[in-house]
Amino acid sequence: MSCVSSRIEKGKIIGLDFTKDEINYARQNNQILSLDLELSHRCNLRCVYCFAESGPALKDEITLEEIKDVIDQALDLGLKKVSIVGGGEPLMYPDFFKVTGYIKEKGLDQIVFTNGTLITEEVAEKLKADRISVVMKLNSFDPQTQDFLTEGKNVLKRIMTGYENLCQVGYLDDEELTLGVESVICKQNIGELPKIWRWARERRITPYFEILTVQGRARNYDLLVPIAEVKVLFEDLLAIDQEFGYNWTPIPPIAGQTCQRNYYAILLTSLGKIQPCTGISVEIGDIRKSSLKEIVESSEVLAQLRKMPETLKGPCGSCEKNVDCYGCRGSAYNLTGDYLASDPLCWHNECDLEVTNSVLAQQAR
């Protein structure tokens, strides 16, 4: 069985969207292939697992012109794709389509991660017109569970209406656009995740199922699943995928994919700060004080991450899978305080299980 990151389609690694040569070149030359972009902290839901604890807009959030300027700076560093992520609900940002229109104008690929509740027929048409791939949050088919995890009302119905509107404008028939569903693995939904996975595969929807990162609101809720149960879940999802002709190695943090974003991506927060990713909430620069090029070239944090696996510690550093996998750096950072530590939520790290279970028990309390 080959590792998931070796699955290649049209020359690109599945789940990463770039070739190995592109990724290696970016690592060695301080380039940025992908920009994760937070538009605002504002959100209409209060998801219990939200890493950013989103809610009202923050004071002094970045302006439309600042966003455009960072995109232009990233283009000079090799940018090929923009991922509009959480930290807030992107579709609540007043200038959302001005941002996506600019991204399209620059010839960049783009994808938006949304809770799906605001996708009207008109919004669906605009999303497709700007050639935006869409990943919607879907944690449960049970209305009460979905409402609990998002602290909202009738959320499942609103998500499914958004999904139907995307289908109506032809998202499932457009081979150049991705329609995906994202689920966070937690105690409240783990039992039904295989059902959601199969539902997605049957409809040619890409599933993104990820292990919970213990940060933000997640620290206040009992959500974490024992490592052994997550391992079984990944194996069950693999068995389903094999029915559809997919084969991959179960490794955290994302089922069916591998995370190598720390080799070639950065995050721009809604306050103009630069982080390695959403999981590693370490500020490495401020676009209001320094150029993106200066931030990327001078960051010791990025340098250490881009030298993985040689900089990894513990079992991750010696794991035979670390050529294609470095675990979740966000989990390592939030559970140990060290983004280069061995991933405490990886079932391959058997010698860490006792320590990890102790940490999880403390987090659950």
Tell me what the structure shows.
The protein is of the alpha/beta class and 365 residues long. It has 13 helices and eleven strands. It has a nine-stranded mixed sheet, covered by helices on one side. Strands 1-2 form a two-stranded antiparallel ribbon. Helix 4 links the parallel strand 5 and strand 6. The longest helix has 17 residues. The chain is globular, with a radius of gyration of 19 Å. The N terminus is likely disordered.
Question: What's the short version?
Answer:
The protein is α/β, with parallel strands linked by helices and 365 residues long.
Approximate helicity band: 25-40%
On the 0 to 100 scale, the average pLDDT is: 91
Stretches where pLDDT is under 50 for at least 5 consecutive residues are 1-8
**Rg over C-alpha atoms, rounded to the nearest angstrom:** 19 Å
Order of helices and strands: EEHEHEHEHEHHEHEHEEEHHHHH
What is the count of DSSP helices, taking H or I runs of 4+ residues?
Answer: 13
Give the biggest beta sheet.
9 strands, mixed
Question: How much of the polypeptide forms β-strand, as a percent range?
Answer: 5-15%
- The secondary structure category is alpha/beta
| Cross-sheet strand order for the largest sheet | 8-7-6-5-4-3-9-10-11
C-alpha geometry: globular
First-to-last CA distance: 39 Å
Oligomer classification: single chain
Could you tell me the number of beta strands? 11
